[in-house]
Each structure stands twice: as C-alpha cells, then as structure tokens.
Write a sequence for this structure.
C-alpha cells in the first residue's frame, strides 16, 4: 500500500485538537494534513473519530477509538480497505475513571458535590459510607479496558472477578467466569463493570433479567457502549430498588437527552462518554499510526487490524 497523503479528519476534535496529531506525525513519510469530509477523499489514509462515506476512497482508515461498531465492516472488506482501531491504549484512563466511580460511591463524594452546590452541610448515615478494600467487583470483559479496571481494583484490595468468553485465567482476577455463567458472576458483586465491545452478542447484554439477578445494594458501571445495557430496564431497576445505583459513561442515545430520568437520580453518576479522555491521548494515537506506517512500509501486517 502506497501512502502519500495522510489525513487527520476534523472529527477527532471531539477528543483532541487535530493539529496536535498532525504535528506529532509531521516527521513521517506521508504528507500529513487536517481534512474535512471532502478533503478526506483525496487521502490514501485517514485517522478519524467519525465515519463518513468519503472514507471509501481511502485505502486505510484508523479509528481513534477502540470500538468500531460505527464502521461498515462488510463494505470495507469488500472494497479491500484496511480498518484499524485504537485498542490497547485506554486501560489506564478508563481503569482510573472506573476506580473514581467506585471511590465516589464508597466515600459519598458525589453526594457531597451535590450538597456543595446547595450549600448544605449534611453527613451521611453512619452505615452508608464504606471502603473499597474487601468489596467485590465483577468486570465483564477482560480485554484492555477490563484488565485496566481489574489491576487498579486489585491494588486497593478489592475482590476481583470477571467474565470472559473463553474463561481463561487473567492475572489479578480471582475467578474468571465464561459468558454463559454471567448471572452467577454478577449475582453477588457490589460493583458490576461493563468493558465489552458492542457486538451482536453483547447488545443489551444487561437487561431486566440480569439486573434482577444483581444484588439490591449493587452498582452498575458502564464504560463500554450504551447499547450493551437495556436503558429502559436499567431505569426501571433503579426506580424499583432492584439495584442501588449506576455510574454511566455511555448511553443508547448521546448526548443523553435532557428529559432522561437518569439525570435526576441521586445514586446515578453521568459522565459524557469521556472515560478514556486524557491530555496524552493524541500521543498514544500518534504511536499507533506511526507504528502502522512503518509496518506498511516494511510489508508487514497492520497492528490492531479489524478488517
């Protein structure tokens, strides 16, 4: 594959200024420029956050996210267009975000922040705050994101279990359940953290039955994709007290509509699909793109190739 023109699509501005990535790759062999939808058609390769039909004129598309459900995989494969993603770089940022969620729940930090807005000085009931040491978290999905969560939870002395399709052991995870053991895995965990990609198998993986299976004192954490959870079922489970709360970074519709009841729920933490955000994000993307430019020049296989 001959790559003479590399475009940084302006959609990456959702995460970082495209000029940052352009400058970080300025010393590579191709000419690197920031492009819009029309400009992308003239590129051999494009680095992007969004998907546009004009990318079908390119030979290689790199997504700055790990998820690739927005891309038409069959059409890309039929046209011989390479698609790579950014899996492997989000373990630290997402792991720390999930740790922050759990600390906020345990130490009541969200409650205090809301009280501060109202200039209220109220301590919680004596038996509400707790420490994470000795508490349990079940991480559903043990790829880069899931392992990032598990490593940090384990460091705080939590009991870490997980769900993985193969059931193969993972360092730092006390027990790994297979996918068909999901209900058993989540039934007694204080926190259930979702870190799976969105596929046909994982769409609405957590629905009414799964939520009813969880402990009534548990919290659901979702840093994967919104459609992994049946959102209506989640709202009902929260309203009915089937689970205690949730920390949600992703939603079926984004931005989360202003009329969603999730905004007003005391035990729900809403973040704007930003769990992976970090000021060094563009540097990690530059490393992946640079590496694949080198591999392509050497006639080697692309890293993180999806199709």
């Amino acid at each position: 594959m001959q790559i003479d023109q590399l475009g940084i699509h302006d959609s990456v501005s959702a995460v970082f200024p495209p000029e940052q990535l352009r400058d970080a790759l300025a010393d590579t062999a191709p000419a690197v420029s920031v492009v819009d939808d029309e400009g992308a058609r003239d590129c051999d390769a494009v680095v992007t956050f969004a998907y546009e039909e004009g990318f079908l004129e390119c030979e290689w598309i790199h997504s700055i996210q790990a998820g690739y459900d927005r891309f038409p995989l069959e059409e890309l494969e039929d046209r011989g267009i390479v698609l790579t993603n950014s899996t492997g770089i989000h373990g630290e940022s997402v792991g720390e975000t999930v740790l922050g969620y759990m600390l906020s729940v345990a130490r009541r930090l969200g409650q205090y922040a809301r009280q501060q807005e109202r200039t209220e000085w109220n301590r919680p009931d004596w038996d509400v705050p707790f420490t994470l040491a000795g508490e349990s978290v079940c991480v559903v999905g043990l790829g880069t994101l899931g392992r990032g969560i598990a490593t940090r939870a384990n460091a705080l002395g939590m009991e870490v279990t997980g769900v993985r399709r193969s059931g193969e052991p993972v360092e730092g995870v006390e027990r790994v359940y297979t996918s068909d053991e999901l209900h058993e895995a989540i039934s007694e965990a204080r926190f259930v953290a979702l870190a799976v990609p969105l596929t046909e198998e994982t769409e609405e993986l957590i629905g009414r039955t799964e939520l009813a299976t969880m402990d009534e004192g548990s919290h659901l954490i979702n840093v994967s994709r919104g459609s992994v959870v049946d959102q209506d079922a989640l709202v009902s489970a929260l309203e009915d007290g089937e689970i205690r709360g949730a920390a949600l970074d992703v939603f079926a519709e984004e931005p989360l509509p202003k009329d969603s009841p999730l905004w007003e729920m005391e035990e729900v933490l809403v973040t704007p699909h930003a769990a992976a955000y970090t000021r060094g994000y563009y540097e990690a993307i530059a490393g992946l793109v640079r590496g694949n430019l080198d591999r392509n020049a050497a006639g080697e296989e692309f890293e993180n190739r999806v199709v």
